[in-house]
């Protein structure tokens, strides 16, 4: 039962005061967005929809259209919540940025998706490291309209709360699953490779790279293999994992992960660019342009 969050402090930002609540929830200060903020949204939205034609999952594009996101100005969370709530019971809540993992998992477990309330500056339009409103709203939110993916995200949140109680290794295993599916996942749709991961769909460069570059590996989804695989947060991915459907993703998260964590505990992590003999290899990458320093 979600209780209304308690206002705890006013956060000073360059746009005045934004009230921050106990669970990290802030109200979307829609009236404080500048013309530049709205123009940044409109530019990124138009550019990405152009890049994603023929590259993004049809289910992603249909879901984004069904949400009725305004392409010309930053959408109001409350308008999107009316549509999203009816479709799958999910709710967008504004946040300041990355949340402590347990807070993040608790939101997902209660069908609340945290969306950063601010958007990047015009001079950051091509890249920003931390997730801003465009990454969250354009990238993550549309698929919450898809009932199967919406169930997966809630199951993931519940799994995260449990993993947090088990320990750091379990949490690391689960974070890798999020990274290689929700953030950087590919899907096979009607026999063709398509993008659904938010980190890719919100990046023009990585949308092209993930689909067309010879450099990265593309490997069939394997839950435990993914949970062991390191990743990079500072460059395009060295490896992308491909699911056959969102149902496959949901089925993979049905079992209790506790015995899986126990099995993985003694096994070494797999470097981000490595290909295993047991992998279902769709494309073995050339490794061209890969950073040569260690993976995280
Ligand atoms: N917080 N607001 C926000 N958004 C995220 O995507 C997010 C987070 N905190 C932690 C986190 N993601 C990752 O560690 C996930 O793998 C859990
Ligand atoms: Fe993200």
UniProtKB/TrEMBL annotation:
Domain Biopterin-dependent aromatic amino acid hydroxylase family profile: residue ranges: 1-296
GO MF annotation list: iron ion binding; phenylalanine 4-monooxygenase activity
Keywords tagged on the record: Iron, Metal-binding, Monooxygenase, Oxidoreductase, Phenylalanine catabolism
Enzyme class, UniProt record, top EC level: oxidoreductase
Record GO biological process: L-phenylalanine catabolic process
Keyword Iron on entry: yes
Database matches in PROSITE patterns: BH4_AAA_HYDROXYL_1, BH4_AAA_HYDROXYL_2
Pathway(s) it belongs to: Amino-acid degradation; L-phenylalanine degradation; acetoacetate and fumarate from L-phenylalanine: step 1/6
NCBIfam families referenced in this protein's UniProt entry, alphabetically: Phe4hydrox_mono, PRK11913.1-2
Protein family (similarity comment): Belongs to the biopterin-dependent aromatic amino acid hydroxylase family.
The protein's name in its UniProt record: Phenylalanine-4-hydroxylase
């Amino acid at each position: 039962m979600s209780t209304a969050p308690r206002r705890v402090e006013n956060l000073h930002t360059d746009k005045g005061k934004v009230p921050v609540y106990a669970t990290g929830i802030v109200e979307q200060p829609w009236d404080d967005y500048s013309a530049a903020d709205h123009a940044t949204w409109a530019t990124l939205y138009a550019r990405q929809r152009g890049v994603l034609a023929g590259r993004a999952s049809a289910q992603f594009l249909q879901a984004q259209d069904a949400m009725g996101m305004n392409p010309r100005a930053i959408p109001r969370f409350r308008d999107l919540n009316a549509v999203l709530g009816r479709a799958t019971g999910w709710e967008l809540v504004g946040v300041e940025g990355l949340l402590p993992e347990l807070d993040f998992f608790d939101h997902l477990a209660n069908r609340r998706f945290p969306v950063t309330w601010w958007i990047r500056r015009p001079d950051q339009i091509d890249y920003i490291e931390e997730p801003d409103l465009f990454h969250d709203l354009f990238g993550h939110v549309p698929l919450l309209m898809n009932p199967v993916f919406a169930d997966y995200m809630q199951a993931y949140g519940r799994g995260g709360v449990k993993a947090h109680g088990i320990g750091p290794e379990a949490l690391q295993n689960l974070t890798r699953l999020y990274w290689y599916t929700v953030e950087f996942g590919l899907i096979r749709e009607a026999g063709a490779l398509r993008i659904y991961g938010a980190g890719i769909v919100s990046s023009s460069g990585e949308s092209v790279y993930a689909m067309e570059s010879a450099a990265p590996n593309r490997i069939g989804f394997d839950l435990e293999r993914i949970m062991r695989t390191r990743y990079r947060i500072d460059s395009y991915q060295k490896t992308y994992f491909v699911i056959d459907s969102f149902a496959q993703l949901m089925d993979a998260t049905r079992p209790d992960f506790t015995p899986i964590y126990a099995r993985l505990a003694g096994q070494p992590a797999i470097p981000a660019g490595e290909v295993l003999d047991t992998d279902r290899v769709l494309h073995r990458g050339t490794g061209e342009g890969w950073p040569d320093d260690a993976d995280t």
